[in-house]
Amino acid sequence: MTRRAVLAGSGALAIGGGLAAVLGAGGRTPVGASTTAGRRVLKTGTTSAPLVGEASQIPVWGYNGSVPGPALRLGQGEAFEVLLENALEEKTTIHWHGVRVPNAMDGVPHLTQPPVEPGERFRYAFTPEDAGTFWYHPHQRSFEQVGRGLYGPLIIEEADPPQVDRDLVWMLDDWRLNDQGQISGGFGSRHDAMMAGRIGNTITINGKPAAPLIARPNERIRLRLVNAANARIFGLDFGELDPMVVALDGQPVEPHRLSAPLLLGPAMRADLIVDFDYPAGTRHSLRDVFYDGLEYELTTFECQGKEVRERRLSDPAPLPPNPLAEPELATAERHRIIFGGGMMGMMGRTASGSDARNEQRTGSGMMMGRMGGSGMMSGGMMGWTVNGVSASGHVHDPIISAVRGTTLLLDMTNETAWWHPIHLHGHSFRVLSRNGQPTRYQEWQDTVLMAPEERVEIAFVADNPGDWMFHCHILEHQAAGMMATIRVN
Question: What is the pTM of this model?
Answer without folding.
Answer: 0.89
